[in-house]
Hints:
With 321 residues, chain A is mainly alpha-helical.
Amino acid sequence: MSTSTAPRTGPQLTPSPPSRRRRNRNALRHGGNRLRYAGIVALFLAPSLIPLTLFTLVPMVSSLWVALHDWNLITPMEFVGLANFRELLADGDTWAAFGHTLGYIAGYLPLVYLLGLGAALALNTALKGRNVLRAAYFLPVVTSWVVVALLWRWLLSPSNGLVNHVLGLVGIDGPGWWTDPTWAMPSVILASAWKDLGFVMIILLAGLQAIPGELYDAARVDGTSAWQRFRHVTLPLLSPSTFFVVVISLINGFQVFDQVYVMTGGGPAGATEVVVQQIYDLTFRYGRAGDASALSWLLFLVVLVVTIVQVRGQRRWVTYA
Amino acid sequence: MRRPALYTAVTVGALVMLFPFAWTVITSLTPGAGLGTPDLIPDEPGLDAYRTLLEAMPFWRILANSLWIAVASTLLQLVTSAMAAYAFARLDFPGRNALFLVYLATLMVPMQVLVVPLFIEMRELNLVDTYAALLAPSIASAFGVFLLRQAVAQVPIELDEAATIDGAGHLRIFVSVVWPLIRPALATFAVLAFMSSWNSFLWPLVVIRSPELMTLPLGLSTLHGQFTTEWDVVMAGSVISIVPIAVLYLAAQKYVIQGVARSGLK
């Protein structure tokens, strides 16, 4: 076996006696081995590394460069050092935007997780038509946010929306949903949870399917109740899936934008002005590209820290079977 | 929970999930919808909205743009991600872990952060308002590398070794051993990649000007401005944009669930 091209990739098999043909090829290969191996690594990495460098890493670094300048996208950039960051941290709007984002996450995450878990548990049982039902729950996931937000904007329309129409039938005077500062964020959360619960369901479904059935059999023999089995078998063994859902949902939650942009545009009265909406407004409405880049780096750092804390903390509650 | 109760709950849930879509279809078939609350069954259903839509924009062109961009970016991402995944899971080279961390970090950068510098880059390259600019950010995917690396790592190393003994090099092992065995993960990723290209909004919004180069979400959002009170037209556009992606998902659903289960995302 040509160990030269596959070093340390696992336990070495005892090679069968090489035929003459193979021995010759190995002899031929022996010369430019290291160079050849480096070439192979480059061959496999280049197709993703080159585009990622050009279209993600370079813009990432240049946005940090922009963050150190005052710039309105038109006139020359003016170097200001960390002034943009200092101003942002002293600005109440920044804190408000982070507050709205956290508020969104605080409402969205528990809601989407509980709904997704309920759907996953129900659709993991041997129901007839299970695949059709799963598809129904997943359909909103594949639909674009522009479509979903337009749809919900209309369903929750204060004057002629379906939701208030139905509420009116049972004598409830529905709120102004996205036109009322109190209800605007709950409207966005509701639409988001509805759209994403299918994704959570799929991840948890896969996790449920990986739990060995014998564990439930053993627990049943011990005379446990359904609740005890859920509490002591399902939940702990589902914790890696839960972990994945929480990490991804947090990253996505901090980056919430499309639905806000289409449903409320950050309004009413700034009630849904989340961080990314703020970045967008700073850039495209006020031409403050320097501040926008600084804010996006603040956001990136927050997400990075939260993710690292999550990954570090996982040992406390995540059980890998 | 008792069986009938469970059935009822799940079915009611499914109806809640599906109802907005049914509503979209109904509205698209209700001429002049949007001023009052349309009836569940329109008095005079008709396809006027679809006709208006086709006249208002080069719709077929926009649909074709979306399709070919989504297919091209999905195929590119599948190949580039799987190759990198193979490198990270099977090849040994200095700085491997550090490089993998760099890939992961790019996952945490919101698209909005990249939009301005990326736009400037495209301007420098004279690519604004071209297909190339539309495609550029989705040639490679860090998420894909992350997902597929888990899948490659689960392919027994003994298979590689057996192939090596038979005289296969890495490229050969990648193509004829690893690729076929990670097909469920590839299918999952293909669906996710197709979805995100099909639905992407911000980047096309920034980089495309000509109506002939628009993709569906962009076309739909301009529709929203043009026909603020004509919901039937907006919803007709929505219906046409949902159908292809729904069909694709239904075809791949089996693989998606399998793929998620096997890719270590559990």
